[in-house]
Amino acid sequence: MFRYLFSRFECENTPRNFQKEIKIMENHGDHSHLQQRKKRRLVLFPLPLQGHINPMLQLASILYHKAGFSITIIHTNFNSPNSSNYPHFSFRSIPDGLSETEASTADIIAFDMLLNVKCAVPFQDCLAELLGGGGGDDDVACLITDAVWYFTQAVADSLKLPRIVLRTSNVCSFNAFAAIPLLYEKGCLPMQDFQFETPVLEIPPLRYKDIPIIETHDPENLNRFLKDMVKQTKVSSGIIWNSFQELDELAMTNLKQEFPIPNFPIGPFHKYFPASSSSLLAQDQTSISWLHKQPPKSVIYVSFGSITGVNETEFQEIAWGLANSKLPFLWVVRPGLVCGTEWLEPLPKNFLEMLDGRGQIVKWAPQQEVLAHSSVGVFWTHNGWNSTLESICEGVPMICQPCFGDQLVNARYVCDVWRFGLRLEKKVERGEIERAIRRVILEAEGQKMRERIMILKDKMDTCLKTGGSSYQSLESLINYIMSF
Ligand code: UDP
């Protein structure tokens, strides 16, 4: 069974060409906001995990380039972003007080809760100093924090500063998270094995096995964590979503009944500019030169994101499944993906040599560029929301292997609602992998998936253009912030 883990990343990447990024942003739309808004500052506080840092820094870039706000990023010492990639932002580091053991725990809920405790005082001090003029002459319009930083609402209230929440998942999975405490109260959770396939009436179309439970040493912790996150989101000044109206329409209607605060689906964030520069690991560019040599729509791109891990047996099943498919593959094997190993030690002997160039393994890929490459035919993913959205944006169908949390919800939507993916069940087995790959790349079923995902991709392209849903939502967000 897949597991999840995370650890301290070293910043290895080098500064990118920012002039190019700014130029593209400037060509993207109207910039009447730029002049009048130069003097308002936004303070943003990302959660220090790759899947949360990326969207927060993308959002910062959008609000800087599209609206002319000045930007201050407050960040923890743990997994601090590479500030040299953002010369136009100012960065404030706060001590998180995490020990090595605490920073490398596999218990993500305990980790998030601990951060909410340990960062409270340093964050309050840092923000108070910024408000007292320590951040330059601009006046601070509002605070934008990840939804997981629930303690920041009390800080914002005490400093009389509006707080807007960035939720880095989509609306469907947020609704599912919000329903978990209620399901516990009703006695429907914890779930029994026989319930797995039963539909959850409160959050259609999910089944019990899709409920985004995250394992933690004390099950009561998850309940407490979710209650705090939901409660402090509800009393915030609004929610920004890295999603778009056309994708999350029904879920958004349901959400508004429970959360009658302003909602701004302005995504997909990464499409406002060429590629992400907030990667904590160096992205191996040989991925792209290798892709150039492969036939169109033939490559299986495999990545399970920055946290999910596999055991040795699963790793070997994946390797054999890929090899037996007889199709080219690009596989991201993060150091530490297989617990207790450095990198590729568990790979079958002479594996890559045997494939004669048909397989390429990298430690970390420029994922958005990979997915945009014409040679990629399918994305075998853990369905983290960023990966799922990036795949939709490039019209690449998915093989879904969710592990925990919102990945379970995303996979259900990809496979059963949007219908451009196949789900692998939890046991990783080479025969099943090979069949899934061949179904998506070679068979008519895969072609149908490709057609369906292209329809959504077109909608996504439209939503960012003048008058489109995300374009309008961003305008509303900017005006809203200016009203503070
Ligand atoms: N990513 C990347 N290179 C890789 C694998 C992932 O740049 O080799 C990026 C990916 O583009 C995405 C993020 O890392 O933006 C992963 O976020 P996601 O929400 O998909 O998963 P998480 O890491 O939070 O589980």
TrEMBL record:
Keywords (A to Z) from UniProt: Glycosyltransferase, Transferase
One GO biological process term: salicylic acid mediated signaling pathway
CDD domains in alphabetical order: GT1_Gtf-like
Pfam families, alphabetized: UDPGT
UniProt key word Repressor: no
PANTHER family the UniProt entry points to: GLUCOSYL/GLUCURONOSYL TRANSFERASES, UDP-GLYCOSYLTRANSFERASE 76B1-LIKE
Keyword Glycosyltransferase: yes
InterPro entries in the cross-refs: UDP_glucos_trans
Source organism of this protein record: Acer yangbiense
Name of the protein described by the UniProt record: Glycosyltransferase
Family recorded in the similarity comment: Belongs to the UDP-glycosyltransferase family.
Alphabetized Gene3D superfamilies for the sequence: Glycogen Phosphorylase B
A GO term, aspect molecular function: quercetin 3-O-glucosyltransferase activity
Domain of life of the organism encoding this protein: Eukaryota
